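User: structure tokens for this one?
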Amino acid sequence: MRIRFEVAGTPCEYHRDPLLGGAQLRIGPDVVALQSAIDPRTQVGFTLSRAWERSFDGHTIRIEKDRALILSGLRPQRYRVFVDGQLIVKKEGF
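Assistant:
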């Protein structure tokens, strides 16, 4: 899954590797790891939703991911990106 958006004119991108599960947030030239592919909690989890929150230039970026209860690895996941509490992107996919 790749989601592109802007925060205060700065291009940002959330990327999640569908095969290994690693996730990162790119804000301009900087890359922030949100979820490591080698962390066992990335591969095995019992929660249906996960959220990451980061600050950038006085703005709060929150990324939420929800997955289905049954066969969650085989079904599309729902992603939402909020900036300062406002929903700016909503997307489904792997």
